[in-house]
Amino acid sequence: MSRFPLLAVVLGLLATGCGSDPAPTPAGPANTFVFTAALSAVNEVPALAATNAEIGGRGTATLTMHVTRDAAGAITAGTIDVLATFNGFPPGTIITAAHIHTGNSTTAGGVLVPMVPAAGEVTMPNGSGSYVHSGFGITPIDTANQIIANPANFYFNVHTPTNPGGAARGQLTLVP
Description:
mainly beta, 4-stranded antiparallel sheet, 2 helices, 11 strands
């Protein structure tokens, strides 16, 4: 019996098994972006007075941006979900407003994305609490592009009756 046919079969099987894997399909542009902000009363601009009852207010915010893209990959629509927790505020504090603003850490800027809670939605009977809400619209849509491109030029802050101009704020950071 000749060994050549057996050798040809073995070599054929080896060649089949050593074929290259197909190239992975490239992923499209991301449609979800997560940002965090470390909130603190001392980050407010202008600074809160040291005698202000809410000077110890702090918290964390996670903002999740969901975008829709057209066939070319351009963002055509977007929403933001917010999950924020607060502590260090005086008992009985009420959050009256929350926003994403334009501005670096030393600038007070205009509201870009309002995230205003319903009256009484965020109360802190013990000085701590949370705010969870979904689906805040982003308009104009170029705002989404700007935040994604340079989150450090935007901040999230919350407002209270004691500090209607802002009680605690933090710059946005994109979570990789």
